[in-house]
Amino acid sequence: MTENTLDIAERIRLKLLYGNLRRISSETCSYDDVVKLRKIISEAYEGNMFHRDRFGFHPILLSLDTANSMCESLGADREMILSTVIFRLLQENVLTLEQVKDNWSDEIVSIVNGLIKVHSLYRNQGIIGTENFRNLMLTFAADIRVIIIMIIDRLALMKSLNHHPMEALVKEVAVEAGRLYAPLAHMLGLYKIKGELEDLSLKYTNRDMYTRIARKLNETKKHRDAYIAEFIKPVKEVLEREGLRFDIKGRTKSIYSIWNKMVKQHTDVENIYDLFAIRIILDVAPEREHSECWLAFSLVTNLYQPNPSRLKDWLSVPKSNGYESLHTTVFGPQGKMVEVQIRSRRMDEIAEKGVAAHWKYKGVKSEKYIDDLMTRVREILENTDSGPLASMRELKLEVFDKEVYVFTPKGDLYKLPMGATLLDFAFAIHSKVGSGCVGGRVNGKGCKINYVLKSGDTVEILTSPNQVPKQDWLSIVTTSKARNKIRQTINEIQNRAAELAKEKLQRRFKNRKIEIDEAIMMKLIKKLGFKTVTDFYNGIASETLDVNDVIAQYELLDIKETPVEKTSAEEFTMQTQSGDEGSGNDVFVIGDNVKGINYRLSKCCNPVHGDDVFGFVSAEGVVKIHRENCPNASHIKARYPYRLISTRWAGRSGNQFVSTIRVVGQDDIGIVTNITSIISKENKASLRNISIDSHDGIFHGYLVVGVESTEVLTHLIKKILTVKGVKDVQRGN
Fold this sequence. Notes:
The protein is an alpha+beta fold. The chain has 27 helices and 21 strands.
């Protein structure tokens, strides 16, 4: 069998899927639609154009399986059904996008484009744990039907993977189904599909546990069915006496939900009491739905004692995904607790088919619901900066099983997750309100920002222009919008503080005439134990790091990192001579007799022959020569007195030393030319660099010159002072 051909079992399955799809989509898809697709598929099959996927499945079988599941589970529309099959044909190069645009509607083209984008993200690897996750989700959010098709497609694939030999790959798909597609199904109200995805995910990731729970449910089925019948019998009687039209049935809870309870309650399956729920579905006109649901509730609770703490009223205020129902837990026969769900036929269809059912019941304002839902999805994904796994956690956190409803003083209603705080509410109103929140008034009483909201609260937020988000706010809020905005603002504040600290450090370095080597600075930051440059500068901003200590440690590191120069006969040498009579101290003499002594003339003060100097011996034995009036002299002498050594010049060098001259004067034409002309005429001086800055008619110039001695430097400064327009000349450090 080639990858294109089908075996006998697959051919039978193909005929069944195609025939079933024609039957259940007859009211949605036209005869021409079906015939057109069948012709294209047949020609492609005969032309060997199909390729099996990584699991060995034939693409047409999967697409037809997905289309059938959509029709049976959701009552999918024409565009969704056709897009599912057309997309597979595009994948296999049976059709081109241009052909799709020519032969089908813009809606179909839009959905197919969304599916193409999603597939491009899956091409090389799975989505879980990759940076493509957010792109995938934002593609989903562009058209809700893309989400639905992908969820059903993933369910169809999961159902086909039982006992597949590629266990590692199956587990990868199962984890993705549990983390991504099941929460999405919940968000869309597709509870049945969500339950199937979760069950299959557990089955493929923890088959032993899945089998154990399934076996236990099977063993207790007879007793459970008998108990359900005993519970239902009197309920049916009282409902019928009241003239209600209804269906009533017992529903065993999903294996995943039972396993989840076992984990949360730290117990075994034998100790889970609510393995099933009773559902009462009323056939009633929309205008009488609520009254008859409450009537049924009163009849059931008259028969069986209710547990008031477990009443869930999603009739008065439906869930964010449109779910409406009345849940109560009662003590049934033998004192066992039983959950009872009461809803209308319309509510039940919405509970089973989720968002898709809103297209059928237009009275639910489905367009607004869908817009709100997609806004929430986008908000979660666009504001999460912590990577794909964090995005999935945020998505799961936003799938609320319980919600609270609070009001503004003007009566506007806001919906938040159970456990949300006053600070969450402030950010729900607006990011600026949240960032400036200092507290609030709840039902007229003052409350702190960590007050936990209750349904029915009327909340007024108090703000201050001086308030900014704090790090500990992250432990107060529960919603992703609040968390992400707090993180974003804190980062912005820290970045601004870091920039100011960086400027402060650079000014200090400049004042000491030290040029910053970025490579050395990065090594210092790492040595000090900071993970990022921002953290380092934040340490300076918060004054946990002293700027002077940073500069001192930088200098020590600079000494180690800078290659040591050795003097030669042509350059200066140092020799040790005895000091003044009776002193008993050694003196480093900068002369021309001793070779091989390692030294450096310090750049922070640029000593020149004739300056009063001292030597600083580094840990590696290199002597750094500083002027006595060096800006760093007092710091060095106070901190490292044991490394100082007396130093003096010997004779004349005949070489030039680098020095800086600062000139201030009027910004007249030719003044710079006159200054440089003076320097060029000096035999024992040379101009190496010049930097001029002019402002409001005054120029500030820095001249880097080479001179043989302080005598030459002093003479040069006096000459520059004679230039017309020059107001001040000073030697730089």
